[in-house]
Amino acid sequence: MKPLVICTTLLVEKSPQALPLGAACIASAIKQSQLTRELCEVKLTAFSMEDKVCTADSIYRILIEEKPAIVCFSVFVWNRLLLEEVSEKLRAEGIITIAGGPEITAHPEVFTSFDYTVSGEGEIKVPELVAKLISGAEDKTKPAKDGNPLSCILTTSQIDLASLSSPYLDGTIDPSEYGGALWELARGCPFKCSYCYESKGSKTVRLFPMERIRAELELFAAKKIPQVFVLDPTYNANKERALQILKLMAQKTPDTFYYFEARAEFITPELARAFTKIPCAVQIGLQSANPDVLALVHRPFNKKQFTKNIAILNREGVIFGFDLIYGLPGETLRGFKEGIDFAISLYPNNLELFCLSVLPGTDLFDRAGDLHLTFEPQPPYHIIHTDLFSKEDISRAASLSAACDLFYNQGRAVPWFNTICHAAKIRPSQFFAQFADHLNASNSGAAGNGPLPNLTNLQHPQIEKLQLDFIKKLFDRAGLQRLFSAAKDLISLNGALARTQESGRQETLRLSYNAEYLFSEYAGDLKFFCQNVKPQPCKIQTFMNGHLADFRVIK
After folding, report:
1. Nearest to 530 by CA among 479, 471, 462, 483
2. For residues 260 and 283, is the Cβ–Cβ distance under 8 A?
3. Paired residues of 353 in beta bridges
4. Which of 484, 437, 493, 486 is nearest to 464 (CA)?
5. Is the pLDDT of residue 452 over 70?
6. pTM surpassing 0.90?
């Protein structure tokens, strides 16, 4: 019986965005390598934090029952501590453990809980090591310090991507089991943002061959994969290749929804139009709206050009979102709020607000002292405070983040949010701060009336009720009661269309104003709308019109 090698990881959740691609790549490489294909059996086993029992002991028991000779771990910020504990338990039973991944590549010397650590891409080095261990060519006796065995560090060089096998094409992982796929198109990044693991990289981008990309697309088509997250941090850096792949996607997988990461600097009208030919969303890293702050983390930013290029996306109808980071060096809470206001003014479909992580092995980590950064010593290495961003400010920013995610992102508020802010004469950052206060007050006030629903698991109709309750109070305080009926219609109509777009189910809705008028340009100014449009009660029904939700008026 051949010895068993298990490739494993711990996922945040089981989803298309969190499938075990790294572990699958190593498993595929071991299966396909001439050195190991006849020497051992290989198995991919993934765990999820969503599992009812997700502890080091339960993972250890499941793995040990398989009687593996070697276990290869894919280590990330979110799973490092638990997987280190699992490795210690396995090593105590004589099982050899190997670990790799971005968390280890950044600083492999601190990971002494594994027998071997691999810094860099592991598709070549890991099969070589496995072959040596199984054949007896590798000395399994480890050097020790203070009686504890040390990890052996293997450093790898960049791999020719054309030489790698695809874990999708060879059946190592089935994207159907996860409802979608993580899809590697390239490795590396042309930029060196200080907070990223690529900050010390070579600024080179290596591309997977088009033959592999075409074959994987055909597999996604055959399996009817509903969504794909594209792993290329700057998808549009190479415009011609980006256009070529978009054309292939439209031809082979016209019904698959794609998620891209892109840079605003490289947006062109041609590229924007190409994005509209497939179902997709484009996420853009804004990070801060302050050029001086971004200069401190080596991220170039031209605000005028950024605004101009985002206007192209809006004009062509591309779905896009922004990322912002709070706690960056040189940033203040006021500056972060200005970033929120700038971002919302450009009508993103979502706005993700993240706490800065000072990742070991990055340029930012090395300069943390000079930049006055105080951060957690353990994963996820979140910033605690800076010289300009106090601990209390971090807490306020986290509250803004939660409020923005619930109200704007989950609440699907993009079609009408700026209209509400304009009517109330309030900046988006002020709006989110007041909404956060409103939720906190509701929590405090509900203490004697039973627990509130879990705000992380609300359905959209429940979120819409929260939105309307808050906006009514906001308008009441501002003396804008006369505008609320139109605002409610605008929010309810867009909400019903959004839910129909997602589920395909029809909804019936009673409105105080003619639905057609609510979709006119006049509705962008609620005060003008209510002065010039008389209430006209109507009943509408939403339905799917091709790929888009629409409505009809019911007499």
Report:
1. 483
2. yes
3. 324
4. 493
5. no
6. yes
